[in-house]
Amino acid sequence: MPYDRSTTMAARRGGHRPEDASLLQAAYASDIRADMAREGLSMNALAGKIGIKPGTLKGYLDGNSAWPIGIIQTMARLLGRSSEADLVALGYSSSPLAQRFLRQQQQLSLIDRLRRTALLADREPLADSPGAQLAAAALTSPEALKSGIDLRLRPLSRGRRHSMPFAELLIADFPGTDLDQLQARQRLLGLPVRPWRGQPKPAFSDAIDYSGAMVEEGEDLLSRWRAEYKTSRSAVMIIVPVLLATRPLDLDHLSPEAGHLDAVVVTSLNWGGSADVAALVAREFGWAYTSIGRLVRENFGGSYTPYGGLFEQPLSLAGRSFQLNCQLLGELLLDPGLTGKRRVSALDEPETAVQVIRQLRADPDQDHTRTPLIMLRMSSRRIEWTAGRRAMARPGGGAPHDEQAIADYEHLLVLQDDLTRAVEAAPDRPHLILDITEPEIEDYEDTSTDSTDPDFDAFATTSKNVKTWLTSLADS
Asked: Torsion over CA of 266, 268, 270 and 276, rounded to 10 degrees?
């Protein structure tokens, strides 16, 4: 992303590396766009209030030009922001006090986002089912009728030995059309839907982000579901989370077994089970549950969904903003004094989890023994299988055991070791390094095999081991 010398110098003054300057601009631009949506301001309207051309404002927001200080101060006044915090955020002013002030401003903003996480919060829900709410968003679209969409909702269970409700499957089919999968997905995601607070002109893709749902792209699952539900090849399958949905504390089902704990954090590689295990432990304790990756998509949107943790464009504006927000939310969730106690969090974006955990410091004013860390490790065979699965979804095509898949496998081995060492070095916190129970997959060489049920059984078994360890901390 281009940036000029003034931005580079500002980054140096702010204590940031010059190459981070564009990332600072991207994060700030993301905040401004969110404020514009909340206030219902278009690019033209905000530019008119500032007194500049819409194209000039777009250039600043896209990171093509550095923000002038006067524009920053004017926008802060118009949008109800703190110009001092924004100047620090962009690296234009710096001192230890300024950096501390910025961190406090970021934390307050993110805590507010955490409290407001819910699908279409200002609309009366048609049903308690999150899948039904998402379906209603599409069906009430002004373009639903002419789009030719046919919607169906089905419950999804996972596991064989530990079977339980896991999610809902929203099937969006386009019968009688010759749309291919990509065209059908684009038509569905682009449907305009009714606005809600902070989204004056949302599309259905925004509703998917806000609900924490995901569009399934794995051809193995798609083929199985097309046959099972007798759909056309253009059918789009959306998994709406139930077990893995962001959820609050359940006061009616609090377990006394966890009274000696404030919060629990679980981490792993992608597909390593941290989200499933954290959600299962939270359900057992009656605690709140949060997944970092899902929470970032719910709150910041952008439809940026790395497949199995494989970032298609990690240095793009969306990719860098996604990773930065994962890091900021991760820091918050490791501090239950800020985000609330009795929460199990999954740091399920390992690249940022390493950075967040490495930054932990001992604090004599806090009892970190009440906030344990758990690292779930995958076997090398399982990591090789993961690299093969990711290769199959690589943009431009890929295959298990090709050159890039082998490089990905070696990278994941190193990343898992880095994450393990970071957890082991976390000061003053109990930690558990646990090998995940191996899924009962008959042929690991066949990366096209649907492994969802064996995976979930393995994660359910692992969650029982985690719960046993957590309850044992009461005696230590």
From this structure: -40
DSSP structure class, residue 260: T
Place of tokens 């819910």: 118
Angle at 285 between CA 337 and CA 335, to 5 degrees: 15
Class level of CATH domain 5-115: mainly alpha
Strands (E), 131-196: 150-158, 164-173
Strand partners, 239: 169, 214
Residues 334 and 357: their CA atoms lie apart, in Å, by 9
The β-bridge partners of 264 are 344
User: Whole-angstrom Cα distance, residue 207 to residue 6?
Assistant: 38
88-92, 109-113, 207-211, 434-438: range with lowest mean pLDDT: 109-113
Cβ-contact 17, 11 below 8 angstroms: yes
Q: Which residues, other chains included, contact 464 with Cβ-Cβ below 8 Å and sequence gap of 6+?
A: none
- pLDDT mean over 130-147: 84
Residue with tokens 């955990």: 357
The reported pTM is: 0.71
**Dihedral pair phi/psi, residue 371, rounded to 5°:** -130, 75
Each residue of 327-383: pLDDT tens digit? 888 888 888 877 778 999 999 999 999 999 998 887 777 788 899 999 999 999 889
C-alpha dihedral (331, 342, 163, 225), degrees to nearest 10: -40
Hey, which CATH number is domain 251-475, 3.40.50.300, 3.40.50.1820, 1.10.10.10, 3.40.50.970?
3.40.50.300
List the single range of 20-24, 30-34, 280-284 with lowest mean pLDDT.
20-24
Indicate the domain borders of the chain: 5-115, 130-241, 251-475
The beta strands (E) that lie in 231-342 are given as 236-241, 263-268, 288-291
User: Which residue has better confidence, 47 or 23?
Assistant: 47
